[in-house]
Amino acid sequence: MRLRRIMQHRLIWFRDDLRVTDNAAVSAALDCDPNTRISAVFLTAESDWASFGYGPNRLYYTQQLLTHLSTSLASLGICLTVIRLKTYHDQVAWIGQFCATECVSDLYFNQEYQWNERLRDRQIRDHAGSVTVHAFVDRVLLQPSTVLTGDERFYSVFSPFKRRWLSIYQDQGVRPFALPHRSRAPMEPNQWSSLCDRPDSDLSQFPMTEEDAQRALEDFVTHRLGHYDRTRNQPDVSGTSRLSGALARGLLSPRQCIQAAEDQIQRPIWEFPDNAFSWINELIWRDFYQHLLVGFPRLSKNRAFRTETEALVWRNLPAEIDAWKAGRTGIPIVDAGMRELKATGWMHNRVRMIVAQFLTKNLLCDWRIGEAHFMQFLVDSDLGANNGGWQWSASTGTDAAPYFRVFNPVSQSETHDPQANYISHWIPELLTIPVKKRHAPWSGSIPQGYTAPIVDLKTSRQRAIDAFKDLKS
Ligand SMILES: Cc1cc2nc3c(=O)[nH]c(=O)nc-3n(C[C@H](O)[C@H](O)[C@H](O)COP(=O)(O)OP(=O)(O)OC[C@H]3O[C@@H](n4cnc5c(N)ncnc54)[C@H](O)[C@@H]3O)c2cc1C
After folding, report:
1. Dist. CA 381–CA 391, nearest whole Å
2. Beta strands of 193-290 (E only): which ranges?
3. Are 29 and 10 in contact (CB under 8 A)?
4. Residue 183: inside a domain, yes or no?
5. How far apart are the CA of 463 and the centre of ligand 1, in A?
6. Are 347 and 390 in contact (CB under 8 A)?
């Protein structure tokens, strides 16, 4: 028995969970005799970056978080190795080989829910041999397949999902994982060749360390959580947490978010006032989209949730798509959002919905084109949330906006950016015209340097409605 304990070697396999605190796999792996050898690895494959559509923003951010993680782990006497493989499929072989040559007894990782990742983890288990595999629920608050309908199916509509989610959460409670004390001599962090030296955008708004993320969370719950519901739809106000990058890459956990919110409000979430609960609601949406990936594998395979919408004939005009991507459609709120995305690697949620509806409805372009573009630029890019957001906007997904309810980008702009602060910031060309005219500059003379709308909003709206109406449900 003593011999086995001395020989134990635990391997932590990091994915999009790049933190030490409140990390289920890390907490479990560190819960051991101080003499136990612990190693850590992060695997990536360049060929995936293209096939999954990851761009320099995500890769650069990941690189920064890995550097910080490596230092944190080194202070615990754990060496993080970052391995670049040829292809995604080499991961299973690499883990098998490492476990064999380094006599790994136990493998620890947190579950991922995309189809490929679930297949990979199944293969890992199937080929584990003498290695004990420990897989944890960490990315979500409640495990997919525990929030089911009365007849044991996955929910496909958010409101009943949320009711069930809340009742389970209330029974079960979810708390951050403690980090066991580990007294080992610190070591020098490992070096590896950078995943990406330069992002496409200025990523300075994103927390780069766990301490930064905790500070940003604290700042949000102290100053903005209490009036989140009132300000969350205003893109010119910093009313939301802007923690999505940290949550997507796992620098922060959703449990830490809930804990901080409960500490601030001094009540459990089910007793939160509406204003603050609406932020928790977004974290439940986040869970919902991960659960959907498990319940409906076609979502990971580029397929529509509502399969009948796959018969839609999209226009997909390259010149219009280019104008949309470049923020040159002539519709200010759309252009402002697309410019914000390019400049910062992030876009406000309200504006994400507006630009997504404009692309899929007014331009009648396939939602997959928008999904891929977001995937390339967003620091918070995440298959579940991105696919969910795009399919919602395109009326092809769960809970989708009914096809006949097409956002009017001008009234959206007037409602959510009444002083035109947001559009004026991103489109300085508008500064020469009165504030009231900036939402629809074509109603007067279009300012120099700006563009006439590439599409008529009224007729293009009707074209989209007609296209959807023709589908057989
Ligand atoms: C077309 C489209 C694409 C999107 N793509 C992504 C994506 O790739 N990655 C991503 O994390 N979010 C995505 N979202 C959801 C949402 O826009 C962002 O999570 C949000 O804008 C992040 O800002 P925040 O951190 O200030 O959010 P907050 O309002 O502070 O919300 C807190 C957290 O809840 C989660 N969240 C909030 N709204 C949603 C939502 N609608 N769906 C799922 N989770 C949510 C995020 O993790 C967010 O950080 C998308 C939405 C749309 C309409």
Report:
1. 15
2. none
3. yes
4. no
5. 29
6. no
Q: Are residues 272 and 153 in the same domain?
A: yes
Amino acid 181: pLDDT: 84
Looking at the structure, do residues 459 and 316 belong to the same domain, yes or no?
Answer: yes
What is the domain extent for residue 162?
140-175+209-295
End-to-end CA distance of the chain: 63
- The one-character DSSP state at 226 is G
Q: Do the domain assignments include residue 288? A: yes
Same domain (yes/no): 109, 149: no
Mean pLDDT of the chain: 95
Q: Would residue 392 show up in a list of annotated catalytic residues for this protein?
A: no
243 lines ligand 1 (CB under 6 A): yes
Q: Which residue, by CA, sits nearest to atom 5 of ligand 1?
A: 386
Ligand 1 centroid, distance to 347 Cα (angstroms) = 9
Distances (CA, A) of 51 to 46, 47, 90, 137: 9, 6, 15, 26
Using 50 as the pLDDT threshold, list the residues of the chain that sit under it. 1-5
By the 10 Å C-beta count (0-12 exposed, 13-18 middle, 19+ buried), 90 is classed as middle
Count CA within 13 A, CB hemisphere, residue 236: 16
Q: Give catalytic status of residue 346 as yes or no.
A: no
Ligand 1 contacts CB of residue 351 (under 6 A): no
Q: pLDDT by residue (tens digit) across 223-279?
A: 999 999 999 999 999 899 999 999 999 999 999 999 999 999 999 999 999 999 999
Considering its fold, how many domains does the chain have in total? 3
CATH of the domain at 387: 1.10.579.10
Distances (CA, A) of 49 to 64, 301, 366, 383, 415: 17, 16, 22, 13, 38
Q: Do residue 150 and residue 258 come from a single domain?
A: yes
Q: Would residue 285 show up in a list of annotated catalytic residues for this protein?
A: yes
The answer to whether the beta carbons of residues 376 and 55 sit under 8 Å apart is yes
Q: Tell whether 201 is covered by a domain.
A: no
Q: Which of 114, 333, 349, 353 has most ligand 1 atoms within 8 Å of CB, for mutation?
A: 349
> Known catalytic residue: 13?
no
Is 96 within the bounds of a domain?
yes
Question: Complex ipTM, two decimals?
Answer: 0.99
**Residue 247 near ligand 1, beta carbon < 6 Å:** yes
- What per-residue confidence (pLDDT) applies to 188? 86
- CB of 374 shorter than 6 A to ligand 1: yes
> What digits encode the pLDDT tens for the residues 348-369?
999 999 999 999 999 999 999 9
Q: Does one domain contain both 379 and 254?
A: no
134 with 148, same domain: the answer is no
Query: How many Å lie between the centroid of ligand 1 and the Cα of residue 187?
Result: 37
Residues 130 and 275 in one domain: no
Closest CA to 382 of 15, 14, 12: 15
